[in-house]
Amino acid sequence: MKINLLILMIVLSFQACKENSYNSEEIIYKKNTSDIIKLSSDGIENKKAAEKYLYGLNYIKNEKYSQAKKEFLKADKIEPDNILILSSIANVENKLGNSTKSNRMLYELISKDSTYVNLYINLGVNLNKLKKYQEAEKIFLRGMKYIENKEPIKKSSYFLSMAATYKGLSDCENMQIYAKKGLNSAQNDFLKNFAKSLIRYSKTDCK
């Protein structure tokens, strides 16, 4: 059984919500791009900035990344230094093929707010895509202390992305451990099926 890591990497790429808030805004799981998109502007105070941000999210939903970047930059101009907006700019840079710039931005954001879990997920996934698995492992381990009390969608995404890192490192034991943690936290079929596929792989094909 061969697993394509680029397909199975899960990332809360453009989730605009405060770390301690979680409500029923529409959440979209895009299998073809491996994104989880939460259509919310919670955490952005300025109404106009929030409006621009939501425009950007809808462009992301339709995979129009250049237009999304323009809207995120408009939101940033209205409400500068908002980590939710800045992290989405970093992520859309990666979507546009600017992985080096994206990773640099994410590292800088982590240095400003080391508690924001999405930054670790997104940076770790970016590094996985570049096959920089040892660097990704360091990032995930660094952010581990902030994941314990987060909502299930973040915990499952974190653990499953980490399991993908261990697949890249051919560390079958840790791959299975974190895939099971991801399965235990998952509350939807998209993440559950991903977790189960990683667990099966760790038992049968991992070398």
Automatic annotation (TrEMBL):
<dbReference type="InterPro" id="IPR011990">
    <property type="entry name" value="TPR-like_helical_dom_sf"/>
</dbReference>
<protein>
    <recommendedName>
        <fullName>Tetratricopeptide repeat protein</fullName>
    </recommendedName>
</protein>
<keyword id="KW-0802">TPR repeat</keyword>
<dbReference type="InterPro" id="IPR019734">
    <property type="entry name" value="TPR_rpt"/>
</dbReference>
<feature type="repeat" description="TPR">
    <location>
        <begin position="49"/>
        <end position="82"/>
    </location>
</feature>
